[in-house]
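Example S7 (structure tokens).
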């Protein structure tokens, strides 16, 4: 009876929220038409930078071709410096890497936070509509959502704790999955999440590893809303620690202490042991290691692909018109971020389950990780980038600079030296 009561209560709240989401779509059309000249401007003026997209050798070859004197391959040309000047200026004006660590700029306003500060005021009518939206989102939707979130988290702690007292049998596993699914679905209602799952026949199976692109902490809620997973992460204290300890009593999640996280071999061995037990839930891993703004997929750490077993790729794509799901941890703490999520219009997201993938014969972990990453990026309509997401906090490694130096020196010295100094790129350790 209690479960039915909670389900009906959350369903009623969801229906109430959907009414406002439909109304928002109509209002959004008007707002888009009011600022349609922004789209026209973006078509007429593609930007300050027109990137060539070629390799260093090709672009320098173009620069040398316009010289009056022909230059052989083994000679230095002063015009080569213009290539490095241009690349440096491009990075200053429009850095393709660091812009992935901030919210994407929308073409039209979604009646939420401004992403373009040049348009604080457009018309009185839009300002009034925005004010009404603030009242609806903060005074009507937010109290309902926070209530659902409290119910979901409370029931997760209580339910998993009670299930943890049962002996390790099929009934315990069944009840554990039931409690997890119910709680995650209630929490998804608390975010007014509208989720469309594609290709469900490719859903991750037990004993496998599910890897996905990472945009937000709520990625876990989005995926667990359609199936149960074994979570992997660091042990915490406080409220998060209470939730982790209660969850691990009913389900074999993998939590590491801070000291263990630094021991790469210890982490890999524990994950291998989990995957070896085919009855265990699939492990959910985000190989990027940090949140990206859902416009691209950055380098996958190779550690997740050294464990062995079957990899189940998943592509997650959020619709930014209804709310910005990206978590900019440098700008917002967790509480502020969740407040932004619960006061947005909705979380609209598409999830694609891709066919399972395994390492091919002679394929190392790095190449396998890149192959999986490319498949996720292609399916989700995201930009496939080779850069490491850790650049959000760390400086560029010296190896990247040395790689560019070796490429140029091989052009100047000649083909023979190039073969002997072929750079070897490798994913950073997870």
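Recovered sequence:
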């Amino acid at each position: 009876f209690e479960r039915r009561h909670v389900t009906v209560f959350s369903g009623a709240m969801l229906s109430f929220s959907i009414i406002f989401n439909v109304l928002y779509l109509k209002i959004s059309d008007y707002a888009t038409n009011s600022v349609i000249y922004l789209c026209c401007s973006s078509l007429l003026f593609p930007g300050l930078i027109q990137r060539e997209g070629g390799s260093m050798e090709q672009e320098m070859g173009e620069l040398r071709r316009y010289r009056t004197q022909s230059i052989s391959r083994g000679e230095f040309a002063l015009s080569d410096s213009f290539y490095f000047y241009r690349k440096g200026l491009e990075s200053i004006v429009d850095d393709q890497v660091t812009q992935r660590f901030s919210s994407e700029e929308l073409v039209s306003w979604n009646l939420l936070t401004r992403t373009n500060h040049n348009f604080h005021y457009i018309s009185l009518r839009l300002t009034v509509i925005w004010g009404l939206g603030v009242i609806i989102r903060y005074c009507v939707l937010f109290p309902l959502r926070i209530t659902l979130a409290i119910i979901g988290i409370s029931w997760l702690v209580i339910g998993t704790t009670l299930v943890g007292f049962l002996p390790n049998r099929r009934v315990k596993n069944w009840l554990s999955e039931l409690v997890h699914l119910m709680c995650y679905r209630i929490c998804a209602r608390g975010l007014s999440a509208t989720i469309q799952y594609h290709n469900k026949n490719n859903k991750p199976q037990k004993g496998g590893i599910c890897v996905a692109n990472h945009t937000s902490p709520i990625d876990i809620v989005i995926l667990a809303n359609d199936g149960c997973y074994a979570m992997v992460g660091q042990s915490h204290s406080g409220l998060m620690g209470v939730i982790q300890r209660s969850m691990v009593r009913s389900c074999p999640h993998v939590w590491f202490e801070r000291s263990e996280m630094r021991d790469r071999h210890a982490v890999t061995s524990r994950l291998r042991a989990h995957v070896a037990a085919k009855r265990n839930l699939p492990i959910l891993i985000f190989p990027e290691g940090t949140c990206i703004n859902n416009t691209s997929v950055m380098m996958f750490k190779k550690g997740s692909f050294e464990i062995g077993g079957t990899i189940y790729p998943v592509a997650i794509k959020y619709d930014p018109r209804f709310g910005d799901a990206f978590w900019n941890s440098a700008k917002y703490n967790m509480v502020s971020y969740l407040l932004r999520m619960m006061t947005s219009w909705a979380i609209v997201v598409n999830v694609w389950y891709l066919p399972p993938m395994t390492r091919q014969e002679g394929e190392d972990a790095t190449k396998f990780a890149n192959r999986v990453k490319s498949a996720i990026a292609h399916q989700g309509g995201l930009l496939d980038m080779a850069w490491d997401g850790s650049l959000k906090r760390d400086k560029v490694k010296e190896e990247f600079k040395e790689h560019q130096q070796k490429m140029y020196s091989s052009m100047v010295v000649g083909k023979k030296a190039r073969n002997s100094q072929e750079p070897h790129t490798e994913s950073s350790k997870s």
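Notes on this example. The radius of gyration is 25 Å.
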